[in-house]
TrEMBL record:
Lineage: Bacteria, Pseudomonadati, Pseudomonadota, Gammaproteobacteria, Pseudomonadales
GO cellular component, one term: plasma membrane
GO molecular function list: transmembrane transporter activity
Organism: Pseudomonas fildesensis
Record-stated family: Belongs to the major facilitator superfamily. YhhS family.
Protein name: Uncharacterized MFS-type transporter ACR52_17550
NCBIfam families, per the entry: PRK05122.1 (NF003477), PRK12382.1 (NF009048)
Length: 398
């Protein structure tokens, strides 16, 4: 284990592990900007189905979280990451089948749905597994750093993957995404195979339902704040199309770049001023960005709104996550990460069809007002948790 007094050594160790999160989320990012348009324009399905193709992945992640958490705590985080990477590769196989059956819309759509379900299950293993692996290697005192860098890896991969997927499909066709996903998964498995695992922590493991109860309020605040990301990720391309604007993919990239920049610049604030304060500030900024997207008269201000939303959303997950994970013993850390992450899966899972229904009834711009109102609910809940935190600490001490 690296010397925890040497921040650079810790950071390098963390980065070497969250690399697998980057690979896993690159597989998620590559089809992100392509699939809604493919389902809507090429296969001829409506906006709700187009949103559901993206969201079903998050629903699969949600349903697999309890199993993933138990696997991380009992079998080890490295093994969980390896199994997850294999699942990513399998999702690429179904992407190839979807391309193969592109002249049979129902069959192509079914292949996409199965692939998204497999990818969602793999995501829960890779993302939570990497966090558990990182914390196990560098110590619980660096939990905020591990969660922050894991997020940089995931959203950085989405920022890179989205335009990469557009280029691949425009140059070679839908099949090229499937091949790319398979190759990335193979590289990830080969790299992870030789890395040193984290020790499995002994001790009493809390039932998942108990862990879920402890992190419930923090997770609800996260879920409300995550609707903005889900809305941008799923519908920004169709929003740009309805407004007759070009280069929608840059909105996703700018969201990701702002997200990463904020984590690099302000990630240490969580340990310095506390998770709740950081979450409150970030959700406030995210609300402003979403309102700007709602009111944007042109593509330039829409880009500014996407950037502001990414900047604001950046530290919500680690800020509330540090407070949530600290509520359980180390032996149940994997379950805590899984239970807490479940809420972002739930949020992203329902955002696609829900925002699609809002768009169908009120227009695509209105989905960003809807997301801003949800984030405001997350802000109010974070303020409440911040005010209740001293009482909760006293109760645990007693």
């Amino acid at each position: 284990m690296p010397d925890t007094q040497r921040p650079m050594a810790v950071t390098l160790q963390v980065v070497s592990i969250v690399l697998f999160t980057f690979i896993g989320y690159l597989n998620i990012g590559i089809p992100l900007a392509v699939l809604p348009g493919y389902v809507h324009s090429e296969l001829g399905f409506g906006a709700v189905i187009a949103g559901l193709v993206i969201s079903v992945q998050y629903l699969a992640t949600l349903l697999s979280r309890p199993y993933a958490g138990r696997m991380i705590d009992t079998l080890g985080s490295k093994r969980a990451v390896l199994i997850g990477l294999v699942g990513c590769g399998l999702s690429g196989v179904f992407m190839l089948l979807a391309a193969w059956f592109s002249n049979l819309p129902a069959l192509s759509l079914a292949s996409l749905f199965i692939g998204r379900l497999v990818l969602g299950s793999a995501e829960s293993l890779v993302g939570s597994g990497a966090i558990g692996w990182g914390i196990g290697r560098v110590g619980a005192a660096n939990t905020a750093k591990v969660i922050s860098w894991n997020g940089i890896a995931s959203y950085g991969a989405l920022a890179v993957g989205a335009p990469l997927g557009v280029v691949l499909v425009s140059q070679f066709g839908l099949w090229s995404m499937g091949v790319s996903i398979i190759l990335l998964a193979v590289v990830g498995v080969l790299l992870a195979w030789r890395k040193e695992p984290a020790p499995i922590v002994a001790g009493v493991r809390l039932p998942f339902i108990n862990v879920l109860g402890r992190v419930l309020p923090h997770g609800c605040a996260l879920a409300l704040g995550s609707i903005g990301f889900g809305t941008i990720a799923t519908f920004i391309t169709l929003y740009y199309t309805t407004q007759h604007w070009d280069n929608a993919v840059w909105a996703l990239s700018l969201f990701g770049a702002s997200f990463i920049g904020a984590r690099l610049l302000f990630g240490n604030l969580i340990n310095r001023i506390g998770g709740f304060r950081v979450a409150i500030a970030c959700l406030s900024v995210e609300i402003l960005g979403l309102l700007l997207l709602w009111l944007a008269p042109d593509a330039h201000l829409a880009l500014a709104g996407a950037a502001l939303s990414g900047f604001g959303f950046s530290l919500v997950f680690p800020a509330l996550g540090v407070e949530a994970v600290n509520l359980v013993p180390a032996s149940s850390r994997g379950s805590a990460v899984g239970a807490y992450s479940l809420f972002i899966d739930l949020s992203l899972g329902i955002t696609g069809p829900l925002a699609g229904a809002v768009a169908a009834g009120f227009g695509f711009a209105s989905i960003f007002l809807f997301a801003a109102l949800a984030a405001a609910g997350g802000l109010l809940l974070s303020v409440y948790l911040y005010r209740q935190a001293p009482k909760a600490r006293e109760a645990r001490g007693a």
